[in-house]
Amino acid sequence: MWGRSPLLWAIPLWMSFGSAAALAEPQICYVLDGLLFVYGIILTALYCRLKITQARESQAKTVKPKAEEGVYMGLSPHAQDTYETIGMKK
To answer: What Rg do the C-alpha atoms of the chain give, in angstroms?
Structure first.
């Protein structure tokens, strides 16, 4: 099908321009509004499906961390104070 001449694709396209020009302006707007409406519904459905699958995957992956594995697990206190007091001699 793709190996055929591009001329075979161009002729029906060229012939359809006459029928598109025959439509009045309001009719073209109605057709375009319908296409935009269907496009919006399809995109909304795909977006909702994506969010639902991501929510299911995140619920399946969440595991409660143990008490020892907290946010501060890798931190240790410094032995030396960061700010040292300066001895003031008069």
So the answer is: 34
User: CA 7, CA 3: separation in Å to the nearest integer?
Assistant: 11
- In sequence order, the 6+-apart residues with CB closer than 8 A to the CB of 23 are 31
Amino acid type, 7: L
How many Å separate Cα 20 from the centre of its chain? 35
44-56 mean pLDDT: 95
29: part of which helix (H) or strand (E)? helix 25-61
Q: Average pLDDT in the 38-58 region? A: 94
Confirm if 31 and 23 have CB atoms less than 8 A apart: yes
> What is the C-alpha to C-alpha distance for residues 87 and 31, in angstroms, rounded to an integer?
85
